[in-house]
Amino acid sequence: MTTDNPRRRHARRPRRRTRVVLAIGAAAAVLAVAALAVPLLLPPGPRPLFHLPVACGETWQLGTYPGHDDYDVDLFPTEGEAWGRPVLASAAGTVTEAGINGSLGGRTPDDPQGPRGRGGGYWVKIDHGGRWETQYLHMLEPPLVEVGQKVAQGQQIGKLGSTGNSGAPHLHYEQRRGWEKVETWFDGEPSGITHDDREYTVRRTSNNCGGQP
């Protein structure tokens, strides 16, 4: 005849609890990974109706040049002082980056020929949903928005400047679909700025009159 040892009976329970806890933890980890990975595998949604990231009614020059990188757009005002001009959200979305990209350098309105920095200087990135993003670089001062903040179309997010690797006050702007830069569209039309194999400029008037959540 055998008898069950109470100590052994009690010793089995913690092991079972441990296995259950580990199984629950593993399942939670799998669900968390799936929640992050699945949206990235889905095809991008329809292109948002992007507007120029500058004040309503103003005409700006959009351009690129050899070595600028495909699809990158530099914006310069055609009239008035460039320094400090409002930079606006092209479409409604959520801020995912707001700070310094690279280093600032020393170019300011008081010292426009100061030392260059690296990268984009003060910058902002906005997620517009459907895996569409916009980026705004070389701004004058720290962004006027914070990571996680929701912004409306036409809301001011910063001021135009020349921080980072910039030769003159302007706004470097990009539209991205998924992980890839694409040709910028404004008001439902392509900008015509694609490859950087030659210098190319075009003038466009902003219809970014704001107010769209």
From TrEMBL:
<keyword id="KW-0472">Membrane</keyword>
<dbReference type="InterPro" id="IPR050570">
    <property type="entry name" value="Cell_wall_metabolism_enzyme"/>
</dbReference>
<keyword id="KW-0812">Transmembrane</keyword>
<dbReference type="GO" id="GO:0004222">
    <property type="term" value="F:metalloendopeptidase activity"/>
</dbReference>
<keyword id="KW-1133">Transmembrane helix</keyword>
<feature type="region of interest" description="Disordered">
    <location>
        <begin position="99"/>
        <end position="118"/>
    </location>
</feature>
<feature type="transmembrane region" description="Helical">
    <location>
        <begin position="20"/>
        <end position="42"/>
    </location>
</feature>
<protein>
    <submittedName>
        <fullName>M23 family metallopeptidase</fullName>
    </submittedName>
</protein>
<feature type="region of interest" description="Disordered">
    <location>
        <begin position="190"/>
        <end position="213"/>
    </location>
</feature>
<feature type="domain" description="M23ase beta-sheet core">
    <location>
        <begin position="84"/>
        <end position="182"/>
    </location>
</feature>
<dbReference type="InterPro" id="IPR016047">
    <property type="entry name" value="M23ase_b-sheet_dom"/>
</dbReference>
<dbReference type="InterPro" id="IPR011055">
    <property type="entry name" value="Dup_hybrid_motif"/>
</dbReference>
<feature type="compositionally biased region" description="Polar residues">
    <location>
        <begin position="203"/>
        <end position="213"/>
    </location>
</feature>
<dbReference type="Pfam" id="PF01551">
    <property type="entry name" value="Peptidase_M23"/>
</dbReference>
